[in-house]
Design brief:
Helix 1 (2-131) runs antiparallel to helix 3 (146-222). This protein has 387 residues and is of the alpha+beta class. The strands form two sheets. Strands 1, 4, 5, 6, 7, 8, 9, 10, 11 and 12 form a ten-stranded antiparallel β-sheet that branches. Strand 7 (318-326) and strand 8 (329-339) form a beta hairpin. It contains four helices and twelve strands. It is 62% helix and 16% strand. It has two domains: 69-222, Helix Hairpins, CATH 1.10.287; 255-382, Glucose Permease (Domain IIA), CATH 2.70.70. Residues 44-113, 167-204 form a coiled coil. Keywords: Coiled coil, Hydrolase. InterPro entries: Cell_wall_metabolism_enzyme (IPR050570), Dup_hybrid_motif (IPR011055), M23ase_b-sheet_dom (IPR016047).
């Protein structure tokens, strides 16, 4: 009994120590857990804050990019206006030069004719003077040969009429020559005016192009990085597919399409292919059409008759023209300097519809060309004749 009591007394401190250790351990775990939980919450809040700031920054970058695209669009549309005026002025200049050349040729011919007529009149007057007017009086006084008198009088009447006709022709030639000379002066003045206008328009074009280059530099800075460029290309692809699908559904045109013309179409510009259909563009994006080399301002010709269903600036494609050929076939012409047709215009095969350029952010001139059927891109090389 005494042993049991002694044993219980000896074990009592040990049990108290164990309980005390357990209490201390539980308190440590509680405190550590609280600290760990507080630390996790802080990290979570920090991450959420970073995500929010990053999202805001990306949104600002996107807004800035869209604003730059807007500036690019405005600059390129201004260039398109000037380019169209320049083209019309150039055509007027060519017509005026042709008219001026024709007028100069006409002037030379009339001057030569005037000289011949003067020589002929001078010869007639000399002949009349040499024969003398007294012969005519003698004939009237001569009563012995009436037959001779009649013949001679008829001769004099013929000569007088010839002189009168020659004089009238000479007057007419002088009037024509005067009109041609006035026309020459007007055409020369008009030519000078057109040349001044062309110089002014070229100066405006250079200003617009400088503004475009500045905007393009800023835009390239905002699009730095392959990931961002890939996203932009994917957005552009979705945009054009959506646009084509909408046009295809809204425009139910009764035309034959291009099915029977595979391998027979002419290229829209006479230039080498710099990017082939289906070749890799970036990431999983491939070329849905071809890039053709072309001079800036060169005429872009439609590959077949149809109706214009889109004619406007589109991000990634610049000034874009889309022609519906019927039966679900469409042709697309992108990166133009200017568009010569409007939505709803009927166009014939080989008709100029645009001017080649580098709109949409390109650094060199060229034409982007696609053929689509029911919204699916086709290889243009299989549809256009090889030169």
């Amino acid at each position: 009994m005494e042993l049991k009591f002694l044993s219980s007394r000896l074990n009592q401190p040990a049990r108290s120590l164990s309980r005390l250790c357990f209490i201390f351990f539980s308190l440590f775990v509680f405190v550590f857990s609280s600290q760990l939980s507080a630390s996790g919450d802080d990290r979570l809040h920090k991450l959420q804050g970073q995500i929010k700031r990053q999202s805001q920054q990306l949104e600002k970058q996107k807004e800035k990019r869209e604003a730059l695209f807007g500036e690019l669009r405005s600059a390129e549309q201004e260039i398109a206006k000037v380019a169209k005026v320049l083209r019309m002025t150039r055509q007027e200049l060519n017509r005026t030069r042709e008219e001026l050349a024709d007028a100069k040729q006409q002037q030379a011919e009339l001057t030569e004719l005037y000289g011949h007529q003067q020589s002929a009149l001078q010869a007639q007057l000399t002949s009349a003077y040499m024969s003398g007017n007294h012969d005519y009086i003698k004939l009237l006084m001569n009563q012995q040969e009436p037959g001779k008198i009649e013949r001679t009088l008829s001769y004099y009447q013929y000569l007088n009429q010839a002189r009168m006709d020659n004089l009238e022709a000479l007057k007419k030639t002088r009037r024509q020559l005067a009109r041609v000379e006035r026309k020459l002066a007007e055409q020369a003045s008009r030519l000078q005016s057109l040349e001044r206008r062309q110089a002014d328009e070229k100066s405006k074009m250079e200003e617009r192009q400088l503004a475009r280059e500045r905007t393009l530099g800023k835009l390239k800075g905002s699009l730095s990085g392959g990931r961002q460029q890939l996203i932009t290309l994917q957005e552009n692809e979705r945009t054009v597919r959506s646009m084509i699908e909408r046009r295809r559904q809204r425009e139910a045109l009764e035309m034959d399409g291009l099915k029977a013309l595979k391998g027979k179409l002419s290229w829209p510009v006479n230039g080498r292919i710099s990017r082939n259909f289906g070749s890799k563009r970036q990431g999983n994006i491939v070329w849905k059409g071809v890039m053709l080399r072309a001079k800036e301002g060169q005429d872009v010709l439609t590959v077949h008759q149809g109706v214009v269903v889109y004619a406007d600036w589109l991000k990634g494609f610049g000034l874009l023209m889309v022609v519906d050929h019927g039966d679900g076939y469409m042709s697309l012409y992108g990166h133009n300097q200017a568009l010569l047709k409007r939505v709803g215009d009927r166009v014939e095969s080989g008709e100029p519809i645009a001017l080649a350029g580098k709109s949409g952010g390109r650094t060199s001139a060229g034409l982007y060309f696609e053929i689509r059927h029911q919204g699916r891109a086709l290889d243009p090389s299989a549809w256009c004749r090889r030169s």
